[in-house]
Amino acid sequence: MSDAAFSHPRLARVYDPLDPDRSDLDTYVDLVHEFGAASVLDVGCGTGTLACRLADSGVDVLGVDPAEASVDVARRKPGADRVEWVVGTAPEVAADPSRRKRYDLATMTANVAQVFTDDADWADTLRAVRTCLRPGGHLAFEARDPADRAWERWTKELTHQVVEVEGEGPVEDWAQVTAVDGELVTFESPTIFHSDGERVDSTSTLRFRDEEALQSSLEQAGFSAVEVRELPYAPGRGWLFVART
């Protein structure tokens, strides 16, 4: 089940206005050019910002996400008709006999790789992505370095904002960590719509695996030539994993 931040229709509609700086996606656009990828599987595509951007440049893109509300937002974006959208998961795509296409590159942007808190779900996803890639294709995803302790910056004092959103008026939100249990970090993200006072609460849990564990999980899923790069837009705070089939 997706967090309310992605599955609640009203929250999905304000996701982009509340987080408009997506310069982090430049990293994945650069990888498309680096590998000469003509087709991309965007796992956890959310509201479709990367998928639409790639499709606009002529890349064949399939965007998959279990949050229907987010995919609905994606489908309404300019250029969305050039993207194939699937409400579901990577294992469901891989198991669908009607989908025989193999992709040059698969991506998991932002926190997507860290939402898989269960080892079995993570392993299933990696194996499914590998199935969806052509021989010699690549998977790229990012993960936060637990040594950076990013969650200590997820406080109301540091994240609080009120944004004027077209069609909604002022929208207030913030993040606040509520629990840290080993590698698992849980945080709340309340959103308040000032136009009518509605408050929607979302609770999320991310898993902060270390570099060795992530590399091992890729190798166990059958990937080779696993490369760990510095995360370009957040040096010292995370890794960019690039693995080849």
What does this structure look like?
- With 245 residues, the protein is an alpha/beta fold.
- The protein folds into 2 domains: 178 residues, Vaccinia Virus protein VP39 (Rossmann fold, 3-Layer(aba) Sandwich); 58 residues, SH3 type barrels (Roll).
- The chain is 30% helix and 33% strand.
- A 7-stranded mixed beta sheet has the order 3-2-1-4-5-14-13, sandwiched between helices.
- α7 links the parallel β4 and β5.
- The radius of gyration is 18 Å and the shape is globular.
- The two termini are 29 Å apart.
- The model has no long low-confidence stretch (mean pLDDT 96).
**Average residue pLDDT:** 96
Strand order of the largest sheet: 3-2-1-4-5-14-13
CATH homologous superfamily (4th level) name of the largest domain: Vaccinia Virus protein VP39
At the first level of CATH, what is the class of the largest domain?
Alpha Beta
The end-to-end distance, rounded to whole angstroms, is 29 Å
CATH topology of the largest domain: Rossmann fold
Short description:
By secondary structure, this protein is an alpha/beta fold. The protein has helices at residues 4-7, 9-18, 26-35, 49-56, 68-75, 90-95, 119-132, 156-159, 211-220, and strands at 39-43, 60-65, 83-87, 103-108, 133-144, 161-165, 169-173, 176-181, 184-188, 191-193, 198-200, 203-207, 224-230, 238-244.
Topology overview:
Elements: H1 4-7, H2 9-18, H3 26-35, E1 39-43, H4 49-56, E2 60-65, H5 68-75, E3 83-87, H6 90-95, E4 103-108, H7 119-132, E5 133-144, H8 156-159, E6 161-165, E7 169-173, E8 176-181, E9 184-188, E10 191-193, E11 198-200, E12 203-207, H9 211-220, E13 224-230, E14 238-244
Parallel strand pairs: 1-2, 1-4, 2-3, 4-5
Antiparallel strand pairs: 5-14, 6-7, 7-10, 8-9, 9-12, 10-11, 13-14
Helix pairs in contact: 2-5
